[in-house]
Amino acid sequence: MRIGKVIGNVWATRKEDGLQGIRLLVIQPVDTKGNSIRTEFVAADRLGAGVGDHVLVTSGGSSRYIDKDNPIPIDAVIIGIIDSTEVKRGETDESSDRND
Amino acid sequence: MRIGKVIGNVWATRKEDGLQGIRLLVIQPVDTKGNSIRTEFVAADRLGAGVGDHVLVTSGGSSRYIDKDNPIPIDAVIIGIIDSTEVKRGETDESSDRND
Amino acid sequence: MRIGKVIGNVWATRKEDGLQGIRLLVIQPVDTKGNSIRTEFVAADRLGAGVGDHVLVTSGGSSRYIDKDNPIPIDAVIIGIIDSTEVKRGETDESSDRND
Amino acid sequence: MRIGKVIGNVWATRKEDGLQGIRLLVIQPVDTKGNSIRTEFVAADRLGAGVGDHVLVTSGGSSRYIDKDNPIPIDAVIIGIIDSTEVKRGETDESSDRND
Amino acid sequence: MRIGKVIGNVWATRKEDGLQGIRLLVIQPVDTKGNSIRTEFVAADRLGAGVGDHVLVTSGGSSRYIDKDNPIPIDAVIIGIIDSTEVKRGETDESSDRND
Question: CA-based angle C22:B11:C41, to the nearest 5?
Fold first, then answer.
């Protein structure tokens, strides 16, 4: 999964069936230190994430399994809102509380 | 999902079964500001998108689920025609109305 | 889907079941103007594409759905032989007839 | 599959169903010599891998098949904790015991 | 599919169910001329490929379909051992017999 920061919204009236009622958020991928990496993309959200939240995003074919019995044509979905991360590189500890 | 701009069409007479009747559009990926990023690709379309439209494209294995009971061998499909996006980076707001 | 040009063949006697009788072609990815982009790869073919043909290639998990009831372990398949493409960038029209 | 080194943890209270009870680890991809390559990502873990372990990670749609009857929306999972690798390039042998 | 050269082995005692008895080989991706491209990765093998063999590798979600009734969490699998390739670029023919 990738870590990302919610930076915006996308609205689309005409869309494929199955996407009705699902929020579409613009995600800026970040590393564990919060630095922006790569290009923004759009992810579906059912958890109620808001602009500024750090989130965990699943990409690819597994995304559609947020509803097992009803796969929908999406390729990125927010699966968690991150509370905190803890990373150890060599002798250094990096901790961060997100969304406080 | 990726944001893209429809820039053309592809025609193919000889094709795999299941692709009959599906439009094939050339998509230029763009960022939320409308700048071109990466290389163009081809996506299936059932929504009636036209050249110049900004669209939301699902890539990979989920694409085939535009018809759940009848998966077809495609890896990119237009799932929405974008009305507008709103992005907030730091203190700046960027809004854009598409397809006006 | 990606646009590619068929540039060769691969032969393998020892292979996984399910791949018997499927042709394996070397594909050079190209953009809509026919310029080579990225590295060549190998795609399965059931349409009878030949060296020099411009083709449409589906990658990833959807590839195996060329036979819905019999998914096979392939990650790239030719789904169409391109007749022509038409691309509009700004004020310029680019048309091309392929495989003539 | 990719080789990676476990470098940290991610905690998320609000998450999609099906992710309850699954550990989320930060992975630094490495080559067979242990050098860091590319950007860190997050993988699910059911094997009990710890910080410092070298692991084998499956990405993409297959990840969800750690429980065949219960696919979950993840795109990276630790499928093995590496004991050792042996690589032969030209005339040189490179062996390494991991996690000792 | 990608062309690769088998350059080594990976051993893991603790692993996910379903991976028991499957060999894990280190693959160096190569182009049709045999030049190394990109970073090595690990693929499952049931065909008995050995170090030095040129092989055809399927990546992503289709990999798990080497056993249709028993999908396993792998994202790369050797589907063929290459006998030979033939590539035509412009007026030049490139043939190569592999594994002789």
Answer: 40
Note every long-range contact of B16-23, with CB atoms under 8 Å and residues 24 or more positions apart, other chains counting: B16/B73, B16/C46, B16/C47, B16/C66, B16/C77, B16/C79, B16/C80, B18/B70, B18/B72, B18/B73, B18/C65, B19/B44, B19/B72, B19/B73, B19/B74, B19/C79, B19/C80, B22/B46, B22/B72, B22/B74
Q: Is some CB atom of chain C closer than 8 A to the CB atom of B22? A: no
Q: Which residues of chain B have pLDDT under 70?
A: 91, 98-100
The string of pLDDT tens digits covering residues E29-54 is: 999 999 999 899 999 999 999 999 99
Site from E65, E66, E84 to mutate, C interface, most C CB atoms within 10 angstroms: E65
Beta pairing class for D54-59 and B54-59: unpaired
Cβ–Cβ contact A86 with D under 8 A = yes
Q: Is D71 exposed, middle or buried (0-12, 13-18, 19+ CB in 10 A)?
A: buried
> What amino acid is encoded at C30 in this protein?
V
Average pLDDT of A7-21? Answer: 92
- E strand map for chain A: 2-15, 23-29, 41-45, 54-59, 76-89, 92-97
Alpha-carbon Rg for chain D, nearest whole angstrom, is 15
Please report the sign of the dihedral spanned by the C-alpha atoms of residue D36, residue C75, residue D43, residue B57. positive
At residue D79's C-alpha, the angle toward residues E28 and A44, to 5°, is 95
Domains of chain C by residue range = 2-97
Which candidate in D79, D97, D99 is best for mutational testing of the E interface (most E CBs within 10 A)?
A: D79
Residue D80 neighbours by CB distance under 10 Å: 24
pLDDT-based confidence at C75, cuts 50/70/90? Answer: very high
Nearest to C36 by CA among D44, E31, D40: E31
Q: pLDDT digits over A57-81, tens only?
A: 999 988 887 777 778 899 999 999 9
Closest A-chain CA to B33: A40
Residue E100 has pLDDT above 70, yes or no: no
In sequence order, what DSSP letters do the residues of E28-65 get, joined into one string?
EEB-TT--B-S--EEEEESS---TT-EEEEEEGGGGGG
User: Three-state DSSP class for B90?
Assistant: coil
At D95, the pLDDT band (50, 70, 90 cuts) reads confident
State which CATH number among 3.10.20.90, 1.20.1090.10, 2.40.50.220, 3.50.50.60 fits the domain covering D2-97: 2.40.50.220
Please state the ipTM of this predicted complex: 0.90
The mean pLDDT value for C8-26 works out to 92
Residue B3 has what pLDDT? 97
Nearest CB neighbour to E14, from listed D3, D32, D47: D47
